[in-house]
Amino acid sequence: xxxxxxxxxxxxxxxxxxxxxxxxxxxxxxxxxxxxxxxxxxxxxxxxxxxxxxxxxxxxxxxxxxxxxxxxxxxxxxxxxxx
Length: 83
Fold this sequence. Notes:
Layout: H1 2-24, H2 32-53, H3 61-82
Helix pairs in contact: 1-2, 2-3
């Protein structure tokens, strides 16, 4: 389970970096739906780190609130499983 979370969070970080790069190049973008899906699957922490590292999506309330909520849900989920 730890390996899964490490990998999905690395993916979350990298996907935020890639979307920011594409935004600067005015290229085809990664959909917000995909970004939220990665966060929902456990990559919220990586997405949050990517948001603030690359200054991407930081003005969008849905990301500023949604990603931390997904992260809290995953923390609660892990706590319940391990308890």
